[in-house]
Amino acid sequence: MERNYGGVIWTNHALERLNQRNITQRDAWATFQHPDQSRYAKTKGTWIFYKTYGNEKYEVVGKKNERGEWIIMTVWSRPVYGEERKAVVHVPFWLKILRKIFGVR
Questions:
Q1: How far apart are CA 49 and CA 14, in angstroms?
Q2: Three-state SS at 72
Q3: pTM (predicted TM-score)
Q4: Which spans in the chain are helix H?
């Protein structure tokens, strides 16, 4: 695992947690870059990024340093319970218009 991966700085703590929790750095980075959702954490300036992979929800905690660089501080996962997630199919806008014009569903 790399300390600087994907244009982000990874703390030793985060790298240790990835290893302990069998989470790939690539999946953690993808969670940070393309989260399903994100929110402010309790600590000032810190964010939590969430992404679900199958039946696991990954959570990545990061913040910007004084130079504006993102630092990943820790990573964990937790099981997802309840209904299976349904795949969301993105329909391009132009296709929606054509369907509306021609009455096709």
A1: 14
A2: strand
A3: 0.74
A4: 12-20, 25-33, 93-102
Residue-wise pLDDT for 31-90, tens only, equals: 999 999 999 999 999 999 999 998 999 999 999 999 999 999 999 999 988 655 555 667
What six digits make up the tokens of 40?
A: 């402010």
Amino acid found at 27: D
**Torsion of Cα atoms, 43 then 44 then 45 then 47, to 10°:** 30
* Sign of the C-alpha dihedral computed for residues 24, 30, 33 and 36 taken in this order: negative
Which 8-state DSSP code applies to residue 23?
Answer: -
DSSP 88: P
Q: What count of residues does the chain have?
A: 105
- The pair of structure tokens assigned to 19 is 């290893």
Let me know: does 39 contact 47? Beta carbons within 8 Å. Answer: yes
